[in-house]
Design brief:
Blueprint (H helix, E strand, L loop, with lengths): L56 E7 L2 E7 L6 E2 L4 H8 L4 H4 L4 E5 L3 H6 L2 E11 L2 E9 L1 E2 L2 E5 L4 H13 L2 E4 L3 E5 L2 H23 L4 H6 L2 H21 L11 H7 L15 E2 L4 E2 L1
Parallel strand pairs: 2-4, 4-6, 5-12, 8-11
Antiparallel strand pairs: 1-2, 3-7, 5-6, 8-10, 9-10
Length: 283
């Protein structure tokens, strides 16, 4: 006989009614949504997390005939800005004036631990940055800790090229059977942020101005990254050939005193090296 089950009918042996839904207890059902690691957002603050700066030094400098406003956040214990304000000014003074004209702000920010885990980057090109009454284009450079990064062993071509660039910057690369560890030094972090990331992000701004907003959005991200990498590589090679780079870390005592910049913000920390499962990138 056929028909719906009746009260008191025995269940099939070994059958667990809880298992009828394979999504129970999984992200597909929403499990873990309440405690998922995310960067906090506020209903009262529409700014992006990298625009939310704390108390910071802010000032304007004239570079190559162009005025740039700097925002520099203090660093926390164990972190530092690998590229100092003076270092950035030295590099930016060497780029073409028409390229520098597309840039309004240089932001040196201290990320939170959660931001470091979820969105690790060396720097960002921001086409619409807002901080108080100031609005414009920005390059955001992130403070860094001296911590080892762990990559998976299987790399796609883009990751392999980035690994080669990190090796050229002086990072210590070690390969194991299952992973790749990248151990930075203060010098290698400075090489990456100053000679590569700063120019890379400027390349994004130069590239952005060549297109309409719709055309830019439709371009593959790989094309955008290739242009920025090429821009940074060509300009750095030109500066090396001219003997401009590399140069020793710059320190202008008068500038730091005038704008409240502390030496310790730009000095590498000492201490143990802790592993990370993510690697900063340029964007």
């Amino acid at each position: 006989m056929f028909g719906p089950p009746q009260p008191g009918d025995p269940m099939r042996p070994g059958w667990n009614p809880v298992r009828r839904n394979r999504n129970i207890g999984t992200p597909a059902q929403g499990h873990g949504e309440d405690n998922r690691l995310t960067i906090p957002q506020s209903w009262h603050d529409r700014s992006v997390f990298y625009e939310r700066l704390g108390a910071c030094a802010t000032f304007t400098q004239r570079v190559n005939g162009h005025c740039l406003r700097f925002f520099v956040e203090p660093t926390r214990s164990g972190w530092f800005h690998p590229c100092s304000v003076e270092d950035a000014l030295e590099i930016l003074a060497q780029v073409p004036a028409q390229d520098l004209a597309v840039l309004d702000f240089i932001v040196m920010r201290q990320p939170t631990r959660k931001q470091r885990i979820l969105r690790p980057v060396w720097g960002r090109a921001v086409f619409a940055f807002e901080k108080g009454p100031h609005a414009g284009t920005a390059i955001v450079l992130e403070a860094q800790p001296l911590e080892t990064t762990v990559w998976r062993k299987a790399l796609d071509p883009q990751d392999q090229r980035e690994l080669d660039r990190l090796h050229a910057d002086g990072h210590q690369i070690r390969k194991t059977r299952r992973s790749i560890t990248i151990a930075p030094t203060a010098a290698s972090l400075r090489n990456t942020v100053l000679y590569r990331t700063l120019l890379h992000e400027l390349g994004h701004h130069v590239d952005y101005r060549r297109f309409s907003a719709q055309e830019w959005d439709s371009r593959p991200s790989a094309q955008k990254e290739d242009y920025a990498h090429r821009y940074a590589s060509e300009h750095c090679a030109r500066l090396r050939q001219a003997g401009v780079v590399p140069f020793d870390p710059q320190r202008d005592a008068a500038l730091r005193q005038e704008y409240g910049l502390k030496d310790q913000w730009f000095l590498s920390p000492q201490g143990t090296v802790e592993p990370w499962s993510c690697s900063p990138s340029t964007t």
